[in-house]
Amino acid sequence: MATTRTANAHWEGPLLQGQGTVSLDSSGIGTFDVNWPSRAEEAGGRTSPEELIAAAHSTCYSMALSHGLAGAGTPPEKVDTRADVTFQPGEGITGIHLTVRATVPGLSAADFEKAALAAKDGCPVSQALKGTTITLDAALA
Question: SS3 for 2?
Fold first, then answer.
C-alpha cells in the first residue's frame, strides 16, 4: 500500500531578507524556521531544504542497507549514516556524500562494501536524487 507524507512551507518576503517555516505535518513533530542565511551561510538555529534532504537520505540509506544485509543473512547490529548535502548559491545542490559505519557480525569488509554500494543505488531517496552526484564512504565499525 502506498503512503503519502506531507510537509508545508510558509515564506514571507524576498529571498535574501525573508523568512519562513516548514512544518512536518504527517508526523506532527514540529515546525522549523528557515531563511536564506540558514541555507547559504550558518544554520543559526534554523533548518534548510538541504538539511531536510540530508535527514531523509541518511535515514533511507540506513534502512535500505539494513534491509539488504538482513536479506543476505547478515543482519546488522547497528548502522550509522551521515549525509552531507552541499549547496552552492547560484548552482544549487552540487553533491551528497554518505558516510556509513556499521557493525555486522560475520561479514567481510568486501561484502559490506558491496552491500553498501547496492543500498546507495537502491535507496528510494537516492533514486529520487539521481540527478545529483552521490558519493559513499562505507566501512565496518
Answer: coil
Q: What is the pairing mode between strands 92-103 and 78-88? A: antiparallel
Q: Look up residue 138 and give its three cell numbers.
A: 562505507
Residues β-bridged to residue 31: 23
The residue type at 112: F
Q: CA-based diameter of the chain, in Å?
A: 56
Chain-centroid distance, C-alpha 10: 22
The backbone torsions φ and ψ at residue 9, rounded to the nearest 5 degrees and listed phi first, read -115, 140
Q: What is the pLDDT of residue 38?
A: 95
d(CA 50, CA 96): 10
Which grid cell is 124? 528510494
pLDDT per position as a tens digit, 63-118: 999 999 999 999 999 999 999 999 999 999 999 999 999 999 999 999 999 999 99
Are the C-beta atoms of residues 70 and 105 closer than 8 Å to each other?
Answer: no
Provide the 8-state DSSP code for 91. Answer: T
**Residue among 55, 33, 52, 54 nearest 44 (CA):** 33
- Contact yes or no for 60/125 (Cβ under 8 A): yes
